[in-house]
Amino acid sequence: MSLRCVYTDLDGTLLGAGASLFADEEGNFSLSQARGLEACSRAGVEVVIMSGRRRAQVHEDARIIGQSSFIFDAGAAFSIDQETTLLLGDFELEPGQTPVQQMSERGVPELLLETFDGHLEFHDPWHLDREMSHLFRGEVDPAEANALLKENGHGDLRLLDNGAIHRRMEGIEQAHCYHLVPKAVSKANAVAAHSRARGYAPEETIAVGDSLEDLEVAPAVGTFFVVANGPEKDPGVKEAMSRYPNAKVTEARNGAGFYEAVVTSLMA
Question: What is the CA radius of gyration of the chain?
Fold first, then answer.
């Protein structure tokens, strides 16, 4: 079957230094990402951003690259032609409230911050004005955090690791970005739901990313490409790849890795 859709992460994947579409990881000017997008456009392949960023941000990014659908808040929802579908699972959303407001009222962010003091903090300033997920940075074990949530009556939530970040934190060698979300939320579920809505078979799709949360999308697509900088920054990504037989690492990094994944798939 021919390729019909590419799901791609933003930071560390499609975007380079400074979250630029026209920069490599070192900040040098690069057209690799644009060439990959051009190749998709010429072949009639949809490109869908799957990001931990909030809706307004991802909408603008999708608009800039000329696409009408996108996945936001780490998979809490997707939008197709301005119609949004929430993917909150069994999380009971109260009328007139957002998941972030409900989690805040329950004191869940404070529970995590107090328990992991010195190892977890809000990912300032990107934690502001969010609807679907609380955003943190630091170095914690998600399994430990999720056990804590369950023990305190918050088993309908989870903390997910959305990958390594450039921001430095005192006493932490490599900080990660974390999302507090309803338990069912994941990029993998969102990709599968979007594919069903569009009528794509898994073998007609690929995904590109750099983190463990991105890698979990692999079962929902034909091939998953990990850009080379992913396992370089997070050894856990390399270790986890053995669980996904359709996952492979690109030779190139960041946007050049995205271009490599697109061209390889179109040629195949």
Answer: 18
Contacts of 106 (CB under 8 A, 6+ apart): 154
Q: Residue ranges per domain, the chain?
A: 5-87+186-267, 99-182
Angle at 200 between CA 197 and CA 202, to 5 degrees: 120
Contact 220, 188 (CB under 8 A): yes
Residue found by looking up tokens 């996945």 in the block: 71
Angle, vertex CA 213, rays to CA 254 and CA 195, nearest 5: 90
Taking the alpha carbons at both ends of the chain, their separation in whole angstroms is 9
Q: What is the pLDDT of residues 198-210, one digit of tens each?
A: 999 999 999 999 9
The CATH label, of 3.40.80.10, 3.10.129.10, 3.40.640.10, 3.40.50.1000, for the domain at 5-87+186-267 is 3.40.50.1000
Q: For tokens 């957002």, what's the residue? A: 98
User: How much is the pTM?
Assistant: 0.95
Nearest to 28 by CA among 244, 259, 253: 253
